[in-house]
Amino acid sequence: MLARRSIQKLIDGSASYLSPQKTDRLVRHLNRNDRLSVDAEWELIVLAALASIGTVQHEPDLGGTSRLDVRFRSSFMNFVADVTALSDEIVERENRVRHLSQELLKWQGQLSKEGIHGGFQFRVGAIDACVRKGLYKTKLVLPAQQEFRQYVFDQKFDEFISAIRHAPSQVRHHIVNNSRACVSMVFTPGARGQASMHPPYKVAHDIEHNIVYQALHSKSAQIKRAGARDPDELAGIILCDGGCDLMRGMPTVGGVSLEAIVGAFLRKSHTVTFVCVVDVYQASWGPGSQGPGFEARSWSSHWTAALEKLHDGLNVALGNLPVPVRSGENTLRRYEWAKGASRRLYSDYKEDVSMSGCHIEISLRATVEYLAGRIDRVEYERWVSPAWLQHLKRNLDLGNRVSEMSISPHPDRDDDGLVITFGEPDPAMSPFRSPPRRDA
């Protein structure tokens, strides 16, 4: 969610609520660069926000058999709570549509190398959810990943690819319909990208049989096992978005909303007083839109002035943290995409460029890594656009002197700007010229 530099700032400032041993453990999880790193980052974000509006104790000993993440004390409210990040990781493994998409993109890239340009569109069939029959999830008709070669990319698919190669200007169709897969594909010459259609499989169709309710139920049991609370302490659960559609998705026809699920849980629970959902919220898109930010939404079995202060105070505290650069889901996707690329440590290059007639600002880290040979020219031009490099070349072709080079720091991002300023023509790079003449 946060830039790596911002995460390090939170780690450096965590001494008031994390012991050295707990900090070391958190850092180990953050350095895994996987699903546990997302969980650890959310835990750090929530602890840092709460510590700014009250006193936080991490993993207090309440005398029971389990430990909770937070014991919070303030002038307006005391509570214990556990923090958990939810993701659709399990349902993604059950519905391998992303794997299907990736494999078709590989074929699209291979055909492109052979001079055959076009795009694949595909549609996947499904077994629809039916609560009345005890089917609580929509299940796409796709095999396990290791079975794709047998049931999808089989000999008939090879014949489909051969037909495309034989007549690349024709539209080609391919249908897979067997006991394990139901997919229809179309190759369209000249099309760009990829298009897919399939029924939504992450929708909750029942109040209790879904990832959110099950997480709340599990955390409620953990709070009970933690031990006795003080008489004035409430109990809460803080859910964070680690890539879960239910956390931010819009209500759908036949689906159950997040609000309905949390409300049903709180009405049944005799342990948990409030539930708070924290995620990265993008208010709008397009030119002039507001950037992403953290947002907390709260529900309670009996809403009080203290809970309202917690809700408002937590949103203010989250707003004072460094600005997030991506959602929980995109953070997890980035770890998956960059797996094995240790040199980048999953951080971002500065992609936006500022330019005027006499100066240009480009990615400092990409430039230094290119000069050091850590990335090649092709990758360098992914981050520093050839259009901006052309402006740099134009100034050099004119013989203009590089009069100054400076660094524009961006502490809440994972890269800084290299600012190159041009001055008068340099005789080392341009023809000799007569001096300016004074008027008689």
Notes on the protein architecture:
- It is a single chain.
- The protein has 440 residues and is α+β, with helices and mostly antiparallel strands.
- A hairpin with a 4-residue loop joins strand 2 (70-73) and strand 3.
- The longest helix has 17 residues, at 35-51.
- The chain folds into 3 domains: 4-87 and 203-330, no CATH class; 91-197, no CATH class; 348-425, no CATH class.
- Helix content is 36%, strand content 22%.
- The strands form 4 sheets. A 6-stranded mixed β-sheet has the order 1-2-3-10-11-12, with helices on both faces. It has a 4-stranded mixed β-sheet with strand order 7-8-4-9, covered by helices on one side. The protein has a 4-stranded antiparallel β-sheet with strand order 13-14-16-15.
- It has helices spanning 4-12, 20-30, 35-51, 89-94, 97-113, 148-151, 155-166, 211-226, 245-248, 258-268, 305-319, 328-337, 364-371, 377-383, 386-397; strands at 55-58, 70-73, 78-86, 118-124, 126-127, 139-140, 172-177, 182-189, 194-197, 233-241, 274-281, 293-300, 354-355, 359-363, 400-408, 417-425.
- The mean pLDDT is 88.
